[in-house]
Amino acid sequence: MAEKIIILGSEGQVGTDLAATLRGVYGKNNVVCSDIKPGTEEKYDLGPYEELNVLDRDAIDQVFKKYKPTTVYHLAAMLSATAEKFPRKGWDLNMEGMFSVFDVCGDHGVKRVFWPSSIAVFGPNTPRLNTPQFCVMDPNTIYGISKLAGERFCEYYFEKYGLDVRSIRYPGLIGWKAKPGGGTTDYAVDIFHQALIQNQYTCFLKEDTALPMMYMDDAIKATINVTEADSNLIKVRSSYNLSGMSFDPKTLSEEIARQRPGFLIDCDIDGRQQIAESWPQSIDDSSARNDWGWSPDFNLETMVAEMLKQLSTMGVGSN
Ligand code: SER
User: Fold this and answer.
1) Helix or strand or coil: residue 148?
2) What pLDDT sits at residue 26?
3) Site residues for ligand 1, CB cut-off 6 Å
């Protein structure tokens, strides 16, 4: 049977890049994009697009009836900082959205489902350096709690209902096609825009706050590889640790300044500092490497070079 893919939350930071990559591989008509945002002529030109709220189970069912997906990527969620502002809404979107999508996937015999988890599943009592795949997990944000609960349901749906869900714990993701919204790691994208606009950045985290990060191309590669891997290679049915690079704002700004002389950073911290301090600094991803052959292509230097190049080409900072 030919692949038919549906991406839920296709207008977000990951969805934008994932849709472009998958459409390149499978052809635009075999990859259906959907998001709560309305369709536009521009979106319809890129391929099939459906306006869809993941809390509306009947609407998901209708879209699945129409397209008969074989693979579903469910990316619609509320990130850490926004969910702290709207805890109940964050919980409902992240959990109820997941149940609706998983249940409708089961009803329609979808072959494979991807659901993203995050480094936010870890908490203050988790070992912060080289965080193991299995360890103490005591998240203290609504986002982290919803992701940890979601991971348990990934395993549960697989074990009890045979739904083949795959998942990875994204670190902070850095890409140029779309900006993140409402996350704690967002500074690592913003800093590049401000570097090109004014060669200066005021960071909302302290300069020595190290976090795990990843260039978007690596994240998309991991997302597709874990989703398309043979089912018997997927040994972790909750969610895989995944590592690309780790750095703090100071180290990132030094690399930007090396490639863009004169760049300066200062800090004006807010509530996101507390969230960042409860998360790991680096991640042990040996299970992903051993089970399905994960390895990243980008390091700090190549990521910075690529971000500056791509954003300049887009015209950021040129007016
Ligand atoms: N990047 C996300 C956030 O900061 C973590 O998964 O919320």
Assistant:
1) helix
2) 98
3) 79-80, 118-120, 143, 170, 172, 183-185
Query: Residue 115's pLDDT band (boundaries 50, 70, 90)?
Result: very high
Regarding beta strands 49-51 and 31-35, do their DSSP bridges make them parallel or antiparallel, or are they unpaired?
A: parallel
Question: Does the pLDDT value for residue 134 go beyond 80?
Answer: yes
The matching CATH number, chosen from 3.40.50.1000, 3.40.50.2000, 3.40.50.720, 3.40.640.10, for 5-172+214-241 is 3.40.50.720
Atom of ligand 1 nearest to the CA of 147: 6
Which of 169, 185, 187, 277 gets mutated to test ligand 1 (max ligand atoms within 8 A of its CB)?
185
Which of 183, 189, 207 minimizes the C-alpha distance to 268?
A: 207
CATH top-level class of 176-212+246-282+298-313: alpha beta
| Average confidence score pLDDT of the chain | 97
| Cβ neighbours around 82 below 10 Å, total | 17
* 170: annotated active-site residue: no
Are 189 and 316 in contact by the 8 Å Cβ rule? The answer is no
- Percentage of the chain lying above the pLDDT 90 cut: 99
Active-site residue (options: 49, 67, 143, 240): 143
Q: What is the mean pLDDT of residues 50-68?
A: 98
Q: Give the domain ranges of the chain.
A: 5-172+214-241, 176-212+246-282+298-313
